[in-house]
Specification:
- The structure holds two protein chains of two kinds.
- Chain A is α+β, with helices and mostly antiparallel strands.
- Helix content of chain A is about 55%, strand content about 15%.
- In chain A, a hairpin with a 2-residue loop joins strand 1 and strand 2.
- In chain A, helix 1 crosses helix 10, helix 2 packs antiparallel against helix 8 and helix 2 runs antiparallel to helix 12.
- Chain B is an alpha/beta fold.
- Chain B has a single domain, classed as 3-Layer(aba) Sandwich (Rossmann fold).
- In chain B, about 30% of the residues lie in helices and about 25% in strands.
- In chain B, the strands form two sheets. A six-stranded mixed sheet of chain B has the order 6-7-8-3-9-10, with helices on both faces. A four-stranded antiparallel sheet of chain B has the order 2-1-4-5, covered by helices on one side.
- In chain B, a hairpin with a 7-residue loop joins strand 1 and strand 2.
- Classes of the chains: A alpha+beta, B alpha/beta.
- Chains A and B meet through helix 1 and helix 9 of A and helix 1 and helix 2 of B.
C-alpha cells in the first residue's frame, strides 16, 4: 500500500515537472479550458438560480388567479365577479388583489406596488424592498415622494425594509395601504387588479378553471403550475440560446483540446521511449498522461467554476445579464441568491474533465506499447 | 549470466524490405566481466544488445538470464529464466532489476533537473522520494557532477551528460550495465575517462556489455572479452 502511494507520488512529481516543461502549451490550454467552463457554468448557475427564485416566489402564490380581459388585454376586475366565482363548487376562498407598477424617473426603475392581504399598513406608510432601499438610499423613517395619476405629489414614510429569502421577490416591492393605492393610481371603487382563488381539491383546478371560463367568458384563469412551467421554459430557453450562441466557441475548444491532448510531439514520443527503456511499464507511462490530463482539466474546471460563481453571485453576471434576465426585471437591480445544483456540476465535470483526460491517455498508450529499444536508436 | 541460443532478429517479416539484423547468434556472457561487441555500423550490435537487455524480443531463438527474481513467478533457486517468452510486464521487471542502460545519445530528458533524470529509473519501484534523492545525489557525487544536480539536463557538457547517464544507469543497482556506442560523442580524453569508470564498476562486481567500434573501448585493458560481429553474425576469432 505504502509502496503504491509512493509510486503514485513519484509519478505525479514527474508529471508536474513535465507540465512545467511545456509551460506555454499547457497555460494556453488551461486558459481556454477555464474560459469555456466559466461560460458554461455561468449560464448554468444563472439559469438554475433564477428558476429557483421564481419557484420561491410562486411557492406562496395563489393556486389560481382570475383576470378580466378586454380586447385581449388585462383589465380591472369588478368586485361582483368575486361572488359569482365563490359560488362555483370546489372553490375554497376568493379575494381581490390590488397591485400595479410604478415608474420612478429619479432612478429609472420600475417598482411593484402591492396591497398586502396578510398585514395591515397604515395610510401614509409603506414597506419597501432591498433594491429600492439601495437605489434610493432610503431607509426606515425616510420619506419617499410619489407622483399620483393626476400629477399631484404624494409622500409616504418608510416603515420597514423587507427581507426575504429571495431578492427577486422583494427587491422592487412596495407594500402600500389600500387607500393610498387607490389614491395614487386613481383606481375606480369596487374594482381589483385580479382575483386570487384557493380550491378545496388541487386536482380539480383544471375543471374549476373551465367552469370560470364558461361562467365569465371575459376572464382568464391562470393556474400556478402553468406559471411555473412558463418560467422554467423561458429561462431554459434563454440558457439554451446562450449555449447555442457559444457553441461555436465550444466546438473550437473541443477541436483545440483534442488536437493538443491527443497529438504527441516527437519530443514526447522520444521521452516515452526513454522511460520505457529505463524500465517504466506501459501502465506507468499511461499514468503520467492520466495525471497530466487530470491536473490540466481539473484545475481549469475548478477555476472556471469558482470564477463563474463569483461572476453570477457576486458581480450579478454582467456578461449575460441582458440576455438571461430579460427586460422586465432589469430594474431595480436584484442580487441572485446562490443555488448550486450538484447534479449540474457533475454533468459539466463529465462533459469536460472526463473526455479530456481520456483524450490524453489514448495516444500515450499507443506510444507506450512500442518496443523500448526505439530509445536506443534515436 | 546471459545465454543466447541461436538468436535471429528479422525486421519487416514477409515484406519486400525484409531485413535480417541478427542471424543465428549463440553466445554466453559471463558475470562480473566486461564484454565488448565490436563491428562496423549495421553489423547487428545494437539489435543484439537490445535483445540481451530485454528491450526487444528475438524473432527466434532463446535468451536466458541468470540471478533475477521476478515477483509472481515461481522460480527454482537461482536457475536462469528464459526471458524470450515472458509477457511484457515481467520482461519490464527483468529489465528494470537486471540492467542499467547507457544509450548512444545521452538521452537525458530535457527540461528537468539532472538529479530528477538520475532518479527516473527508480520511480516505478515506489521507494520513498527522499531516499531516492539521497541515492541519486551519492551517485552524482561519485561521478563528480553533484554541483550540477539541480541544473537542467540540457545545460550539461557532453562528458557531464555521459556521467549523468552512467549515474542514471546505476540508480537501481543493476547486475549489469548495457552501453551502446557510449563513446560515440566523446573526445579521446572523455572516452578514456569513461573506460576508467567502467573499470571501477567492474571492481564493484558489475557485468558490462558494450557495443562499440571505438578502439579506445575494445582495446582497453579492462575489457575481458571482445566479440566481433559482421552482417548479423559472430566473426570467429
Amino acid at each position: 500500500m505504502g509502496k503504491s502511494i509512493e509510486r503514485q507520488r513519484n509519478i505525479i512529481d514527474f508529471t508536474l515537472s513535465s507540465l512545467l516543461r511545456r509551460k506555454g502549451k499547457n497555460i494556453s490550454l488551461m486558459i481556454v479550458y477555464t474560459v469555456i467552463v466559466f461560460v458554461l457554468a455561468s449560464v448554468m448557475f444563472f439559469t438554475h438560480s433564477i428558476k429557483k427564485e421564481a419557484h420561491l416566489i410562486l411557492k406562496d402564490a395563489p393556486e389560481m388567479v382570475v383576470q378580466k380581459m378586454i380586447a385581449g388585454r388585462h383589465e380591472l376586475i369588478p368586485e361582483g365577479y368575486m361572488e359569482k366565482i365563490g359560488g362555483i363548487r370546489g372553490v375554497g376562498s376568493v379575494h381581490g388583489r390590488l397591485w400595479g407598477y410604478y415608474y420612478d424617473p429619479t432612478v429609472g426603475a420600475n417598482y411593484t406596488l402591492l396591497v398586502p392581504q396578510d398585514r395591515k399598513i397604515e395610510s401614509g406608510e409603506i414597506i419597501i424592498g432591498n433594491g429600492i432601499s439601495r437605489s434610493r438610499l432610503a431607509y426606515e423613517g425616510d420619506i419617499i415622494g410619489f407622483r399620483s395619476y393626476d400629477g399631484s405629489p404624494m409622500n409616504l414614510a418608510i416603515k420597514e425594509i423587507l427581507s426575504y429569502d429571495s431578492e427577486l421577490v422583494s427587491s422592487d416591492l412596495v407594500l402600500i395601504s389600500r387607500d393610498d393605492f387607490m389614491t395614487l393610481f386613481g383606481m375606480p371603487k369596487g374594482h381589483f387588479t385580479d382575483l386570487a382563488l384557493s380550491v378545496r381539491n388541487p386536482r380539480e383546478l383544471p375543471t374549476i378553471a373551465q367552469k370560470i371560463s364558461d361562467l365569465l367568458p371575459d376572464t382568464r384563469p391562470i393556474i400556478r403550475n402553468e406559471i411555473e412551467r412558463t418560467y422554467d421554459s423561458v429561462f431554459d430557453w434563454r440558457g439554451g440560446v446562450m449555449v447555442l450562441i457559444l457553441s461555436t466557441a465550444l466546438l473550437s475548444f473541443v477541436i483545440f483540446a483534442w488536437e493538443k491532448a491527443s497529438g504527441l510531439s516527437a519530443d514526447e514520443k522520444r521521452e516515452i521511449g526513454i522511460l520505457k527503456g529505463l524500465g517504466w511499464e506501459t501502465s506507468d507511462v499511461i499514468m503520467i498522461k492520466f495525471w497530466e490530463g487530470v491536473v490540466v482539466s481539473l484545475s481549469s474546471f475548478l477555476v472556471g467554476i469558482i470564477l463563474a460563481y463569483i461572476h453570477v453571485f457576486f458581480t450579478h453576471a454582467p456578461l449575460f445579464e441582458h440576455t438571461l434576465k430579460g427586460w422586465a426585471i432589469l430594474y431595480p437591480e436584484f442580487r441572485l441568491t446562490p443555488f448550486v445544483d450538484a447534479y449540474q456540476i457533475f454533468t459539466l465535470f463529465f462533459l469536460t474533465v472526463v473526455p479530456y483526460t481520456v483524450a490524453t491517455i489514448i495516444p500515450a498508450w499507443r506510444a507506450a506499447t512500442v518496443d523500448p529499444d526505439s530509445a536506443m536508436r534515436t | 549470466m546471459i545465454d543466447l541460443i541461436d538468436i535471429r532478429k528479422v525486421f519487416n517479416v514477409g515484406r519486400p524490405n525484409e531485413f535480417r539484423a541478427v542471424n543465428g547468434v549463440t553466445l554466453s556472457i559471463e558475470q562480473g566481466k566486461i564484454s565488448v561487441l565490436k563491428g562496423p555500423s549495421g553489423s547487428g550490435k545494437t539489435t543484439l544488445l537490445s535483445m540481451m537487455g530485454c528491450m526487444s524480443r528475438p524473432t527466434s531463438g532463446r535468451i536466458k538470464v541468470c540471478g533475477v527474481k521476478i515477483s509472481g513467478i515461481a522460480q527454482d533457486g537461482d536457475r536462469a529464466i528464459e526471458v524470450t517468452s515472458l509477457p511484457e510486464r515481467f520482461l519490464t521487471e527483468v529489465r528494470r532489476k537486471t540492467f542499467g542502460f547507457i544509450f548512444q545519445q545521452s538521452n537525458l530528458i530535457r527540461g528537468i533537473t539532472v538529479i530528477e533524470n538520475v532518479m527516473l529509473p527508480a520511480y516505478p519501484y515506489g521507494a520513498k522520494h527522499s531516499d531516492l534523492r539521497v541515492r541519486a545525489m551519492s551517485l552524482l557525487k561519485l561521478f563528480n557532477i553533484s554541483d550540477h544536480a539541480l541544473h537542467r539536463a540540457e545545460w550539461l557538457s557532453g562528458g557531464e551528460a555521459q556521467r549523468a547517464t552512467i549515474a542514471r544507469a546505476l540508480m537501481n543497482d543493476p547486475f549489469a550495465i548495457i552501453a551502446d556506442e557510449p563513446t560515440a560523442h566523446l573526445d579521446t580524453k572523455l572516452s578514456r575517462e569513461f573506460m576508467e569508470i567502467v573499470a571501477r564498476l567492474k571492481e564493484d562486481g558489475k557485468t558490462a556489455l558494450i557495443a562499440s567500434h571505438d578502439p579506445i573501448v575494445y582495446e582497453s585493458p579492462v575489457v575481458d572479452r571482445v566479440v566481433s560481429m559482421r552482417d548479423g553474425m559472430l566473426v570467429p576469432d
